[in-house]
Structure formats: structure tokens, C-alpha cells
Design goal:
The chain is mostly beta strands. It is 3% helix and 42% strand. The strands form 10 sheets. Strands 6, 8, 9, 11, 12 and 13 form a 6-stranded mixed beta sheet that branches. Strand 27 and strand 28 form a beta hairpin. The longest helix is centred in the first third of the chain and has 11 residues. The N terminus is likely disordered.
Length: 345
């Protein structure tokens, strides 16, 4: 691809005042030349990433961008999910040469962690180069290449907070009753099901117990701090801000809504908590269309799937049901990342 920026006016005539002689001075033309071309990996390559190869080198090579003049060029390698027009481009690295030396692990992090693509699934991925000379010259983009890339699953260890209480025998080491800080920022969230009325609980960080004297939403770590109490049984959304030592709890019931469900977008179909599997579940008929998960029959708290990768985000995109049939729908809120499954029966 060649570009020209023509800075020449149709005619620029300057007259020298002292000698009365007119001279025509043509303006400069800046030649932007050929865009770089990725030479490796090749278009339509298939890459299966595995954890045992995490440290293996992965090299991206390309031809130089040609500007028509000597230029110190910086190249940036970007990847994104195919068809997204690099709206969520992830930078693999930069180089002033004609290659980037990276690793399998870095590519996997870009896909699995940053873009949130499910592991052990083949995804169409685009890669491109961005060439930059200076702020005065437009960026030059290579034609993207498309690859089929399978990332591997990385188990991320998130900070967690135990929630011992009367509902589970006051066990401060129970891994099934924890909430997580998904951003590792001192803010914890999770969903816990309290089966009995008048449940009492505290928080435990592995060392200290935290209760709430005065039931005012402020946590105290004194040994005798009061238990936190909820009157009604059910699932609760628990939030703790350890930076401010505050907490909240709110009773939550989850349902499915959407034009793929029997009641459309007008009302929810309630899900049922499966204590043995620690998940919400329902078996129902669905038609081709969209669904979302909604809390308390209203929209302030809802979950969708922005990347169609099986993980959920608050306020995320509608979830597609591509084929009509009877489905078991699972909503799994027990981990740091909330997930769902649609299983056709």
C-alpha cells in the first residue's frame, strides 16, 4: 500500500521585494511508501499453545515500512479477536528492528487473560503491525494476518476471604465458602447461600476474624467483634472493602430472561440453587434468541457475556441461543470469575 501527502499548492509565487524578481518555489511532497508486511507467522497458521511450552520463544518477523527517506521506525505488534477491527487490541511488544522476540506465555496471556478467551478452544485471531516514525507522520498499519490459535487455561490465584459462620460449622478454612478479590485490589465479592434463617457469620483472612459491632457496615477485627447476621435464608451477595473496612450483604434471587425463554423479555424464569454442586440451575425449553441472567426481577444487577467465552460480566452482552431445544442452564457464582453453561439435553 502506497500513500502520498502532497503539500504542493497549485502555484506558490513569491516576489523578492528587493530585486522585483518573482520565483516559483514548489512545496515538498512527503512519500509514505509501502506498509510493513508480516512474514512470520504466516496467514492461516494454526497454533496450539500449551503450558509446558510457555517459555518457548515465539518470533514475529516482517518487512520494513518504506517511507522514501531514511526513518527510524518503531513497530508495535498487536493481536485481537478476528472481526473486531482491533477494537480491543493487545500489544505483544515493540521493536525498532524487523522482528519481535516474545514467548508462548506472553501470547497466551494476551488471549486468555487480557482478552478473556476460553482455554483449550481454537479462536480466530488477527495480528497486525503499527509502524510509527514521529508524531508528524501518520501511523502505517500492515494488513492483518489471521491465525487459528488455541490458548491454554491458566489457573490464577486470586486473593480470597473466608466466610465462616453458623451455616457451615464456623469453619475458617472451608474453601467452599469464600469470596474473592478478582482485581487483587482489596475489594472482595462473592455469593454465599445461607440455608437457614437467622444465620450468623464473620470474615476471616487466614489470620484475623472480622465482625461488625453495631451492625453499621463497618468491620472490626477485635476478638469479640459481633457476628454479622441475616434474618432470611437464601443467596446473598457479599461485598467487603478491606481498604475501608466496610461490608454489605444483599439477598439475591437469580432468573433467566430473554426472547429465547418462554416469557421473553417481560419476566424472569427463576433458577434454583443446587447445594450439592454449589450452583444455580434450571432445565427449560429455549428457542433461538438471546438470554441474560437477572437478579431480583430487575435490571440493576444483571450478567451477560461480552466475549461469548463462557465468563460473565455485570451488564454484559446478551447470550446467544443458536439452536432451539431443551437445555440445562447453570449459573456458577462460586469462583472469582462468574461462569455459565448451556447444555442441550
Amino acid at each position: 500500500m502506497k500513500k502520498y501527502i502532497n503539500l504542493t499548492f497549485a502555484a506558490i509565487v513569491l516576489f523578492a521585494v528587493g530585486c522585483g524578481k518573482g520565483e516559483f518555489l514548489p512545496g515538498p511532497t512527503l512519500y509514505l511508501g509501502d506498509a510493513p508486511v508480516i512474514t512470520s507467522p504466516a496467514d492461516q497458521d494454526v497454533l496450539v499453545l500449551t503450558e509446558d511450552q510457555a517459555s518457548n520463544p515465539l518470533t514475529v518477523t516482517w518487512t520494513a515500512a518504506e517511507y522514501g527517506f531514511r526513518a527510524a521506525t518503531t513497530y508495535t505488534v498487536e493481536v485481537d479477536r478476528a472481526g473486531s477491527n482491533f477494537a480491543n487490541a493487545v500489544v505483544l511488544g515493540t521493536s525498532t528492528g524487523l522482528q519481535l522476540n516474545t514467548t508462548v506465555s506472553k501470547l497466551n496471556t494476551a488471549l486468555f487473560t487480557t482478552l478473556g478467551l476460553q482455554g483449550e478452544v481454537a479462536w480466530d485471531i488477527e495480528m497486525r503491525l503499527v509502524a510509527k516514525v514521529s508524531a508528524d507522520v501518520d501511523l502505517v498499519y500492515s494488513q492483518p494476518i489471521t491465525m487459528k490459535v488455541t490458548p491454554y487455561t491458566v489457573i490464577i490465584i486470586y486473593p480470597k476471604l473466608f466466610v465462616p459462620g453458623s451455616y457451615q460449622g464456623w469453619n475458617p478454612a472451608d474453601e467452599k465458602t469464600v469470596i474473592y478479590s478478582a482485581k487483587s485490589d482489596g475489594k472482595f465479592e462473592g455469593y454465599i447461600y445461607f440455608a437457614d434463617p437467622n444465620t450468623e457469620y464473620k470474615y476471616n483472612d487466614g489470620t484475623d476474624w472480622f465482625g461488625d459491632d453495631g451492625a453499621d457496615g463497618t468491620l472490626e477485627s477485635a476478638g469479640g467483634a459481633a457476628n454479622i447476621k441475616v434474618a432470611d435464608p437464601g443467596m446473598y451477595r457479599l461485598n467487603v472493602n478491606f481498604n475501608a473496612l466496610t461490608h454489605t450483604n444483599a439477598k439475591i434471587s437469580w432468573g433467566i430472561i430473554g426472547d429465547a425463554t418462554p416469557t421473553g423479555w417481560d419476566s424472569d424464569t427463576d433458577m434454583v440453587f443446587d447445594a450439592a454442586e454449589n450452583k444455580l440451575s434450571i432445565t427449560m425449553d429455549l428457542v433461538v434468541g438471546k438470554i441474560k441472567f437477572r437478579a431480583n426481577d430487575d435490571w440493576p444487577v444483571n450478567l451477560g457475556d461480552d466475549d461469548a467465552n463462557g465468563s460473565l460480566e455485570y451488564g454484559g452482552a446478551d447470550i446467544t441461543v443458536a439452536e432451539a431445544g431443551n437445555y440445562t442452564v447453570d449459573l456458577i457464582l462460586s469462583g472469582a470469575v462468574y461462569t455459565y453453561k448451556l447444555t442441550k439435553n
